[in-house]
Amino acid sequence: MCNSMEPSFVTGDTIFMQRAVELAFQGEGFTEPNPMVGCVIVHDRKIIAEGLHQKFGGAHAEIEALQKLETVPENATLYVTLEPCCHHGKTPPCSEAIIKSGIKRVVIAMRDPFPKVAGGGIRELESAGIKISVGCLEKEAHELNAPYLMRIENQRPWILAKWAMTLDGKIAARNGSSYWISSEASRKIVHRIRGRMDAIMIGSNTARLDDPQLTVRPPGIRTPISIVWDSKATLNPESKLACSANDSLVIAAVGPYADEKNITRLRKKGCEVLVLPEKDYLERFLSFFKNLADRGVTNLLAEGGGTLLGHLFDQKLIDECHIFIAPKLAGGQNAPSPLEGLGVEKMMDAVPLNRLNIRQIENDIYIHGRMQYAAQR
Ligand SMILES: NC(=O)c1ccc[n+]([C@@H]2O[C@H](COP(=O)([O-])OP(=O)(O)OC[C@H]3O[C@@H](n4cnc5c(N)ncnc54)[C@H](OP(=O)(O)O)[C@@H]3O)[C@@H](O)[C@H]2O)c1
Predict the structure, then answer these.
(1) Would you say residue 5 has pLDDT above 60?
(2) Least enclosed by CB within 10 Å: which of 93, 95, 195, 292?
(3) CB-based burial of residue 58 (10 Å sphere; 0-12 exposed, 13-18 middle, 19+ buried)?
(4) The pTM of the whole model exceeds 0.85
(5) Pick the catalytic residue: 32, 62, 64, 303?
(6) Which of 186, 204, 288 is the pocket-test mutation for ligand 1 (most atoms within 8 Å of CB)?
């Protein structure tokens, strides 16, 4: 909420920025690795133009809104969810276009930490005599672009964990079989999530036991990279995953002692085998995630199994969870559960989810939310 007692904010700022946030969100899945951005132009307390960054490489939100106006009326205010850019990227700088348009006031939800912007857009507008107010619905703007901010500020993708489990918390039966726990309707939702991901990662055991295809069916907005987290390069070259390397990128993230013959076999199948030199798993995770972030991977879906997800959880590397609970029981102390790492010591340390959404999908319950610790980082 904007504090209208603050001299720089005026009544109505929150409402107009709220609309800009809604517009921005329509770009989800299309804009990455760019941020989602929305913009409205207001005159006489009425919205006269709207814009959003529709897709990567396309016009920025401010330009889209400005282009809808033949002339910009005197004393118009522009609301934008992220600091306007001031550099030549895929498109010319927005700060220049705003200055040329004659806009007199710009309300910005949050600064852009992207190093080529980082306050430069605000400075340019201010030096052109434009009145600037920063921080209106800042929290909402941060939440909107949490994946983008994670990549820019922490050099790693935003990590979503997904699993399907029985009512008694099992992600497979005691023989390791997990097809199918959740309903077809739930699985359709999983494919919709996959369709806006940059990458999907599974553990080596899941690759071996389930032989999954990490494809999106039907195809989604983007084609994710398939990743197996596999120290010893044990992925079967005849697996569905390795064979899919002809169609889309498959990465085997292997450790320093991976067998050379296995590596060669996977490379012959067209897989990218990334040999990570770090012996320590956490260091290896971090260097791998940095490698992905450098390639522009903004959203990474970790689909299990429990050992991989458990270790990510222990390292606070899960940012968001998508959980499907089916009304059936599997039992068995040897049947795997979703987070098999060390876990928290005391229940008071259990990590709550915020931005919680709970829905019934046929007879399943679908819960998704963001890890509370993510907000504290
Ligand atoms: N219901 C569901 O949603 C669902 C989803 C996926 C899987 N599953 C089920 O889960 C089962 C497989 O799960 P799983 O737990 O046995 O295996 P997994 O998580 O698929 O594989 C173990 C993974 O943990 C990694 N690992 C081991 N120690 C680690 C450490 N200290 N730090 C970081 N990573 C570490 C291993 O890497 P290295 O190879 O490098 O050692 C490997 O990638 C199967 O039964 C499958 O059907 C269910």
Answers:
(1) no
(2) 195
(3) middle
(4) yes
(5) 62
(6) 204
Q: Is the dihedral of CA 372, 190, 169, 235 positive or negative?
A: negative
| pLDDT greater than 50 at residue 374 | no
The CA-atom distances, in angstroms, between 333 and each of 171, 174, 217, 296, 356 are: 12, 8, 34, 41, 29
Atom nearest to 171 CA in ligand 1 = 1
Predicted confidence at residue 88, as pLDDT, reads 84
Best mutation site among 308, 317, 323 for ligand 1, i.e. most ligand atoms within 8 A of its Cβ?
A: 308
φ and ψ at residue 190, rounded to 5 degrees? -60, -40
What's the whole-number mean pLDDT along residues 189-195? 98
Tokens of 364: 């399943």
Can you tell me the distance from the alpha carbon of 358 to that of 128, in angstroms, rounded to the nearest whole number? 48
Q: Which one-letter amino acid corresponds to residue 8?
A: S
pLDDT digits (tens, 9 = 90+) for 54-89: 999 999 999 999 999 999 999 999 999 999 999 887
In whole angstroms, how far apart are CA 129 and each of 74, 104, 328? 14, 8, 64
Is pLDDT above 80 for 7? no
Q: Please tell me the distance from the alpha carbon of residue 63 to that of residue 59, in angstroms, as a whole number.
A: 6
Instruction: Encode burial over 11-32: b for 16+ CB neighbours within 10 A, e otherwise.
Output: eebbebbbbbbbbbeebebbbb
Structure tokens at 355: 């931005």
Q: What is the pLDDT of residues 326-340, one digit of tens each?
A: 999 999 999 999 999
